[in-house]
Amino acid sequence: MNIVDDLDIFSFSIIPGRADMVANIIKAQGPQWAGHEYRVDIRCSRDVRIICLSPDGPKHMAATKIGILLSEVYDRGNPITLFASSVNDGYVAMVTAISKRISEQVIMFRTASMDRLYPGTVIHSLVRGESQRAVYSTKDDRGKWDFFEQGALLPFEEPILYAARLKRDRLNPDIISRYLRNLG
User: Fold this and answer.
1) What are the extents of the domains in the chain?
2) What is the pTM of this model?
3) Under DSSP, is residue 127 helix (H, G, I), strand (E, B) or coil?
4) Torsion from C-alpha of 180, 115, 94, 106, nearest 10 degrees
5) Which terminus of the chain is more exposed, N or C, with fewer CB under 10 A?
6) Peptide bond into 134 cis (omega under 30)
7) How far apart are CA 111 and CA 121, in angstroms?
8) Do residues 53 and 7 make contact, with C-beta atoms less than 8 angstroms apart?
9) What angle do CA 151, 152, 155 make, to 5 degrees?
């Protein structure tokens, strides 16, 4: 079982650092974008399905209210923030803005059920807002699968998987789950 069994589409990012640091960057960024202000609800549920399945979630575009969920976890004692939003692409503009303000690598993931009209899976890493690595396998409006990769491999990747005969099998929700296990 993987997350898209429940959600159909799921985008999230892994951001080095504490959740309160990420929240402060988000709050500072909001007014720079047409005066948009983010309200913080510290009592909110930590179940990402509440955001993703909401009336403003990725199944119901376009989002009129953007929900962002930040969860802090630890890797070998170091804080990492998991960023998920109600925006279909995982709110790539905000994640890029966050990446510009920290020096460590941010990794974005997007995965969708293979039963969707336009399924696709994406991994994108940024350092200081600059793309370092991109890998995707997507199906276009003509029903054709495309696979693309650029940049140096990330430590958790298994490049042998990208040699699969079918492009749709090179990167999919199961591989993302595998990569997340590799990340710990």
Assistant:
1) 4-183
2) 0.88
3) strand
4) 20
5) N
6) no
7) 4
8) yes
9) 135
